[in-house]
Amino acid sequence: MKLSIVAVASGLALINGANAAISILFPYSGSVWYSNDTVALNWTAAATDATEFSVQLSNKDTALLASAQQLADQVYTANEFVHLLLPQIQYGDGYIVSITNRTNTSDVFAVSQSFKIEAGTPSTTTNTASVASASATTGSAYIPNAVTTTTSSNPFSSTTAAAKSSAGRTTPAAAALAVLGVVGAALAL
Length: 189
Prior knowledge:
This protein has about 190 residues and is of the alpha+beta class. The chain is about 25% helix and about 30% strand. It is globular.
């Protein structure tokens, strides 16, 4: 009998739920990722976690995704955020992201909630006004084609950004503001 990574990941998440230190914040239930576009993965971790991991995309509906697909390898756990280029993936519901051991993908550290993948194309331009507006009003970075919400479950809240800034890390909001500064300087020329 062949077990899918979805079944294994779900089972391990239930068994190890209380011991899991890595926790995926985004994508969460109801999130949308866009096929063939840049997507965001956000998590929390403890100092006792592995220093690096792999990212796997899977779906229990094998008509949508026949087997797990690796999206990234050698992701540094301490970063707690990464942008990924999502390849052309069949559109649909029920996708999950698993954070796994780099050398043994059946060793699952964390599993996201189920989310949707919809049609999308790579962004070629950035609307600096919307970046400034999003950063100023929500404290979050611009993510191309992201579905915005106004609930408190925003993984890019200003509280998270402030905590990461005080730890000496570059936050998505700080990165967006830095890009605005570069764009503004270029426009001034």
